[in-house]
Write a structure and sequence with these properties.
This protein is α/β, with parallel strands linked by helices and 511 residues long. The chain has two domains: 362 residues, 3-Layer(aba) Sandwich (Alkaline Phosphatase, subunit A); 83 residues, Arylsulfatase, C-terminal domain (2-Layer Sandwich). The chain is 31% helix and 16% strand. The protein has an eight-stranded mixed β-sheet, with helices on both faces. α1 runs antiparallel to α16 and α7 packs parallel to α11. The radius of gyration is 22 Å and the shape is globular.
Length: 511
Amino acid sequence: MKDSFGRRDFLKTLAATAFGLSGARASYGSGLFSNKSAKSTKPNIIFLLADDQRWDTMGCYGNKHIITPNMDKLAADGVLFENVYHASPICQPSRASIMTGRYLTSHRCGFDRPTTFAISKAEFAESYPVGLRKAGYRTCFVGKFGFPVTDEKVLGIEFPYPNGKRNYRTGLWLKTEHMPSGEFDRWNGYAGQGKYDTDKGHLTEVNANYACQFIADTKKSQADKPFCLSVSFKAPHGPFQPMSKYRKLYDDKDIPRYSNDGVDYFNKLPKVVREQYRGRKGVGEFSNFIKNYYALITGVDAALGQIRDELKKQGLEENTVIIYSSDNGFFCGSKRLRGKDLLYEESVRAPLLYYDPRAKALKGGSKIAGLVSIVDFAPTILELGGVSRPSSMHGVSFLGLVNGSKTKVRKSTFSENNFASFRTAVEDAKDDAEREEIFKKGTVRSKCVRTEQYKYIRYHETKPLIEELWDIQKDPLELHNLVNDSSHATVLALMRQKCDEYIRIGESERN
């Protein structure tokens, strides 16, 4: 049963105090968007989202082997965030969280049980694109949308699965009729994964061309209106098919494996991960994989450069904010794993570049260490447009970190993984006996809390319960589990409490 408003209000206030969500309001009854300002000087906003790009695959993040001159220049012109975390590191729930500013526990839009729901139109009505459009922005979406939007809150993936086969490829997110094209002034998006090879060229270049066309058309016909352009690339998601001109750049490069790519690192993983995780067999032939993966990112980098050139050509570069991130990370052989989903750093940590040419006092090339969650993207974008965030959003604006008015906007982040290769979830058990059998075998469904120093992971469908506690500052590769270290008993108790509270807040606000 859904909690009363008083209960929800209490939990929101608790979040504001216990988790340091600066700017979180004690009262959340304001409803939909309100326009803070009627000024015509609002900035244009471009939000660029890669797919499966791990946080350290840019030169500006210290990677000496990848070619990303435009990403590096964006970081040099603006700011680079060092500690950003995905709410759920796999595309559908991540993209739903980015658009709505909500945790997976709350919106329940994902690939695997128990989170296989679509986003309802009422929920999407409180997303950042809709909020900005209501406030007078001209909006455009380009590329992979990633999740379904339906009239009511319904299952986005049929359950039980058709013919007894557990397969997310039966989902509504694959169908054009469940894309919210009517909620944008221009729609160049698509359902499903899309294909790199199109009749108009490589998909990354096609997306860049659509973005530039929108910028040019807006300047020509509606220059008096600010715009919000969201570009969602497929790259560097598999199949790893880069443009040949970018792949050739890596032909003569000798790219080493990541430092934690080895059997010893794999053997430190929990047994349930080593036996059940879908990426446990690793990347196979590393050299060709990593060159294709990096070349896809170089293609996105070129698209970023093309978009910035178009802004300059149209005379819009001085009033356009650019935000660049990814929907989830990728192991790339780290811990001898392939893929994402899990809540270890390579999968759950996000890149984030932010550039605002109006912020003349901002020192270009700055690095920001304050914690940020991807649920903070939507409130930040809304604040840029002078729009109040709706009461449904769990995120908070990170603009205080950018303008220097704050050194932190939150004390912790929360992440979830519900992708367990379609194994039966505890919530779906028919009786106590089946529930105990699920616990006995275990799944990789998990929760995670990250503070400035520590990170806590809980595999909540295992008995005995599997927990991990990492001192990320001292142990960034997550090698020394401190759960059984008596000197960290107090920290462990606090992290457990934080995890429980995040879960309760999300569950209390389900639609």
